[in-house]
Amino acid sequence: MLDPKFIRENQQAVRHAIENKKCEKVDLDKYLKLDEEAGKLQKIVEEARSRRNEISEKIGAADPENRENLIKEAGEIKEELQKLEEDYEKVQAELEEIHLKIPNVVSPNMPVGEDDSENVAVRKWGEPKQFDFKPSDHVDLGVALDIIDTEKAAQVSGTRFYYLKNEAVVLQFAIIQFVLKTLTDEKVLGEIADKTGNPYSKPFSPVVPPILMRPEVMKKMDRLDPIDERYRTVQDNLVMVGSAEHTLGPIHMDEIFEKEDLPIRYIGYSTALRREAGSYGKDTRGIFRVHQFDKLEMETFVPEEYGEVEQEFIVGIQEYMMQQFGIPYQIMQICTGDCGKPDYNQYDVEAWLPGQGKYRETHTSDYMTDYQARRLNIRYRDDNDKKFVHMNDATGFAIGRILIAILENFQQEDGSVIVPEVLRGWAGIERISA
Fold first, then answer.
1. What one-character-per-residue DSSP string does 153-202 give?
2. Which domains does the chain have, with CATH numbers?
């Protein structure tokens, strides 16, 4: 959530975010009115409490005649205070309800736009390969090589599920090892940090987080809604994560760090589940958009002055890993109509997919400022002050999507697929053949 003081002092920026992130249900004018009312009530409540305390002190020292009058007065103040506190709590509850709906403001770098068609390509790397044959998509390759089976998965689990088999499984775990090696290598991270102006080369700590979480905690992450996107367990009242970030973000909920302990960086690996409720008829072929997938996710906590440069560093990591694979990509600056409510700034990495003949999203990077940290109450000491950390989350690799990119970019005319050189040591294979 935003700092109430920030909202009061930056109303135009907040209105801009509400309008351009399409948060139509947020009534900022009502929030500001309630905020003013709550401030006045708080002052009246504090004055009533002070009077009550003064009378309580006088009662003990008063003579019998005055004591009776003071006790009567104390009772009247008690009744008055109870009513005032009830009024204050009611206003606070209304205020909090609107407060939680107010989106984060957006970076000056973020263009105003309606949807993903107005995202802006800021740079590209690599040239899409020109094949001497008509390239297949990952579905045909997966069937021919016996490494992906969506038909049997549809019979067993329904649409948008798949079996990953044989060499594709080996490749998945090779990718995981590559990511863990990269993100725990201080030398590699130091070079990327230098290029992006980040003063920290501190490695990431690997984590396998829970995939079920309490809905009230996911709400603090501001990732519970839209609720139709989430799988839920009725019996236990738990929500299944749509990304490892959902349980990585709250890992330090209600904690206070020393500034010198920051940054804290995690690379989490987990299965993720999404209902894809709003994607009817979209990407129905293959494994690009599915209900269940495995994903490596970065989550970092930094001092406020390094939040933006931390995002640049993270995008630098994403680019480094894509370049190591040799997959052409472009970096997209996401517009206001395509970003999340908590996001201050967002970049996507889009890999070139020859089977589709276009770039498609494989990574995202979200910088939240202190928006999530305020809800989660994660702070650090800076001299004598306590501040909220700034949080970033970003894709390491969404396994299914990077497998698509590998299969389509490294396919050969005979139907085989060359394994990227950087993965061969972990995979133990150089080529996937039928």
1. HHHHT-TT--EE-HHHHHHHHHHHHHHHHHHT-HHHHHHHHHHHT-S--P
2. 4-99 (1.10.287.40), 116-432 (3.30.930.10)
